[in-house]
Amino acid sequence: MSRVSNLAAVSDLHVSYQENRELVEAIQPETPADWLLVAGDVGERVADVEWALSVLRERFAKVVWVPGNHELWTIPDDPIQLRGVARYEELVETCRRIDVVTPEDPYPTWDGPGGPVTVVPLFLGYDYTWRPDGCSTKEEGLKYAHSTGVVCTDEYMLHPDPFPTRDDWCRARVAETERRLKECDPTVPMVFVNHYPLVREPTRVLRYPEFAQWCGTELTADWHTRFPTAVMVYGHLHIPRSTVYDGVPFLEVSLGYPREWRPRKNPPQLPRHILP
């Protein structure tokens, strides 16, 4: 008989903002057996990421983290000035010290009500294939974004070292992750956790559609149908909502910046319930 527990999720905590730190400090599980999925953008400094995940790990039976783009930024005032893959590896080791699951660890099985499911934390990146309409190449898409002034800070802060480009890094991550997914038991449903949605459709509601090129990759467009997907959890867009694609629920679970969540009618309800 499955034990009583819940699978919950949150993303885009952005704890560099004091109001968001206070919200993180208030997050509590419903039961001692609850798991929490954290879909990236905890913060920009390694110390802030460690602080927030440590707080959450003290309360939840298991915490699963995937990086967002903000964790991978190398900002001037972070004492840890590692770039690219080295920065990601530092974050993974930080998580392991505090017993938080990362995309580099074996995929855990959640066996609560509605389970079992394989929880699959992903780190994939983006490859500029979600381009603005009329742009057939990455170069055209970036040129258009610069012409509108809507350019992701990743262009200046997220370094792909030792890969030549962020899209090269993305393609390598996708290939390695796909290899691992093919080794999973196909009879057990999966809960995908990624900072970005696996399909482009959720980005169609962006106020500035040219931003979509920093939001994912066409390489994962069929993953939710190729693999036995129960739920796809993501963040990044700062538009919390539920949608369904090909019968699969997609849940955007972000908190976002105080200027975004403060004007909403209801205060943020953290974390978001995923299963059962």
Number of strands: 10
Question: If you average the pLDDT, what whole number results?
Answer: 96
Number of helical stretches of at least 4 residues: 8
Give helix % range: 25-40%
What's the level 1 CATH class? Alpha Beta
Across the major sheet, the strand order is: 4-5-6-7-9-8
Name the overall outline: globular
SS strand fraction:
15-25%
Give the second-level CATH assignment, the architecture. Answer: 4-Layer Sandwich
Radius of gyration: 18 Å
Largest sheet: 6 strands, mixed
**What is the oligomer described by this structure?**
single chain
Number of domains: 1
Catalogue the unreliable spans.
none
How are helices and strands ordered from N to C? EHEHEHEEHHHEHEEEHE
Question: What name does CATH use for the topology?
Answer: Purple Acid Phosphatase, chain A, domain 2
End-to-end C-alpha gap: 14 Å
Structural class: alpha/beta
What do we call the CATH homologous superfamily?
A: Metallo-dependent phosphatases
Topology:
Elements: E1 7-10, H1 18-26, E2 35-38, H2 46-59, E3 62-65, H3 84-97, E4 109-110, E5 117-121, H4 138-148, H5 154-157, H6 166-182, E6 190-193, H7 223-226, E7 229-234, E8 241-245, E9 248-252, H8 258-261, E10 272-275
Parallel strand pairs: 1-2, 2-3, 5-6, 6-7, 7-9
Antiparallel strand pairs: 1-10, 4-5, 8-9
Helix pairs in contact: 2-3
